């Protein structure tokens, strides 16, 4: 059997495939988010220590997970793009970055919203909060570098290299911030939720995480379609598309 | 045959190093700019915060390290840009010797010109911040071990932003987050010795950062230069 593994690695063939996948992922994200929100807000019990305010973790924790997963995925696509010199991989990396940055911001904002009633302060120099902030800087650096280089091929490769440098540094930064934090704070605040979490809480969190994941795929595909059109606007197939052909 | 190749590598490396040092010596004001930047930034803090010795000595490790970080960063643009505009960089890229090797010579020259003077001047500024003697010594050690990492990591950023518009600000955005571990361990070492603890753990970690970046940063810088110049 002869499978062409690289059939969908060309923008021209991937564009319609992405178009077909987007509705599926979008609806799956909507359904999962509805289920996740229902479990989180209607079924999950009120926390006996933290009251109702704890429910923000159903958005906060999945957003923090996704912010890290997306960075790794972005670096992975960047590495593939550099190694195989594949245009589409670099476009995927570029398409993932804004979503990753938004999730990082969301995790920071929800973290501080949660911190106000719990710790009595909007911002605490907690190790996780601090490293999340640095992750946001890394995303911003990646996007700023890509957008300030006009030649798209150079922008792709420079961004890819930066993403790889970043992914090597992320664990170093995380542990240095962690040690810094334990050295400087007399009473370490235990940010972790009680280990024995009710099963429904875990279910809500997992559903929300899955919803965010599927949402990320849908949004990244939409964005990559835009990037493909923008980059390939001089090719015949895009011109055909714009003069009346169907995707 | 092998020794001949090795000699050629050593020669090329020394040539690049000598050339960069000579160029820096011919333009001495460039060295002075970095140094004065470091002095001015670290003199601004007492003016903003107040002259109490207790407060100053408690913020000194962080302030001096941040000032050294910024001074190292503003000088990064000079690392490759002059060679890029006059075409020397293309010649270095075309050289038969490995680019990563020649890049280390350039980075070493940059550190000797911009990093080392800051290291040597730091204890003087530390005195103004009422740092005790042991802490001053640790400050010098930490800067000596840590500033090479700053030059090495900074070189990646300088190479990536070569010839890009707004590269000065961009390099700050790219490089400063990566400097954070060096800042934490460097300032931590000085603070530890101030509190009567051993600074050895921090210094070891700082040395580890520098060694790791010595291995990886020249390769990444070489790759970045090829992307930027092609």
What does this 3D model show about the protein?
- The complex is a heterodimer of chains A (247) and B (230).
- Helix content of chain A is 77%, strand content 0%.
- By secondary structure, chain A is mostly helical.
- Chain A has one domain.
- In chain A, helix 2 packs across helix 5 and helix 3 (87-119) runs antiparallel to helix 4 (127-148).
- The longest helix of chain A has 33 residues, at 11-43.
- In chain A, 39% of the residues are buried.
- The mean pLDDT of chain A is 84.
- Chain B is an all-alpha fold.
- Chain B contains nine helices and no strands.
- Chain B is globular and about 55 Å long.
- Chain B has one domain (2-229).
- In chain B, helix 3 (53-74) packs antiparallel against helix 6 (99-128), helix 3 (53-74) runs antiparallel to helix 8 (167-194) and helix 6 (99-128) packs antiparallel against helix 7.
- The longest helix of chain B has 30 residues, at 99-128.
- Chain A binds chain B through residues 134, 137-138, 140-141, 144-145, 148-149, 154, 157-158, 161-162, 164-166, 168-169, 172-173, 176-177, 179-180, 183, and chain B through 156, 160-161, 164-167, 170, 173-174, 176-178, 180-181, 184-185, 188, 205, 209, 212, 216, 220, 223-224, 227-228, 230.
């Amino acid at each position: 059997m002869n499978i062409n593994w690289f059939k969908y690695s060309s923008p021209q063939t991937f564009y319609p495939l992405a178009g077909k996948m987007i509705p599926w992922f979008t609806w799956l994200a909507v359904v999962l988010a509805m289920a996740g929100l229902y479990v989180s807000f209607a079924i999950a019990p009120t926390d006996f220590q933290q009251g109702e305010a704890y429910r923000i973790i159903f958005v906060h924790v999945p957003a923090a997970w996704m912010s890290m997963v997306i960075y790794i995925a972005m670096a992975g696509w960047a590495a593939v793009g550099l190694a195989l010199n594949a245009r589409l991989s670099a476009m995927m990396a570029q398409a993932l970055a804004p979503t990753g940055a938004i999730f990082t911001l969301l995790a920071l904002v929800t973290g501080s919203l949660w911190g106000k009633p719990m710790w009595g302060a909007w911002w605490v120099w907690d190790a996780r909060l601090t490293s999340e902030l640095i992750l946001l800087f890394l995303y911003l650096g990646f996007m700023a570098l890509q957008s300030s280089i006009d030649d798209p091929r150079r922008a792709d490769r420079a961004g890819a290299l930066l993403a790889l440098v970043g992914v090597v540094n992320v664990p170093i930064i995380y542990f240095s911030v962690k040690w810094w934090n334990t050295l400087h704070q007399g009473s370490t605040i235990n940010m972790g939720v009680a280990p024995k979490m009710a099963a429904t809480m875990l279910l809500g969190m997992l559903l929300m995480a899955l919803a965010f994941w599927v949402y990320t795929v849908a949004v990244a595909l939409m964005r990559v379609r835009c990037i493909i059109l923008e980059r390939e606007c001089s090719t015949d197939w895009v011109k055909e598309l714009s003069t009346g052909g169907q995707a | 045959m092998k020794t001949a190749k090795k000699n050629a590598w050593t020669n090329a490396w020394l040539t690049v190093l000598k050339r960069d040092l000579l160029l820096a010596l011919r333009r001495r004001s460039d060295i002075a700019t970095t140094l004065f930047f470091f002095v001015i930034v670290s003199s601004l803090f007492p003016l903003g915060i107040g002259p109490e010795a207790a407060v100053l000595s408690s913020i000194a490790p962080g302030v001096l390290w941040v000032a050294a970080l910024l001074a190292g960063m503003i000088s990064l643009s000079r690392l490759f840009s002059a060679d890029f505009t006059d075409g020397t960089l293309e010649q270095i890229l075309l050289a038969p010797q490995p680019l990563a090797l020649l890049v280390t010579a350039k980075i070493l020259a940059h550190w000797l010109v911009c990093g080392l003077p800051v290291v040597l001047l730091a204890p003087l500024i530390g005195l103004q911040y009422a740092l005790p003697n042991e802490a001053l010594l640790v400050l010098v050690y930490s800067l000596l071990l840590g500033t090479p990492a700053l030059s090495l990591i900074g070189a990646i950023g300088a190479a990536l932003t070569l010839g890009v518009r707004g590269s000065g600000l961009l390099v700050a955005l790219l490089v400063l987050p990566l400097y954070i571990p060096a800042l934490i361990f460097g300032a931590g070492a000085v603070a530890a010795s101030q509190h009567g603890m051993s600074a050895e753990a921090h210094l070891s970690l700082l040395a580890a950062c520098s060694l790791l970046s010595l291995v990886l940063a020249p390769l990444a810088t070489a790759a970045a230069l090829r992307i930027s110049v092609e």
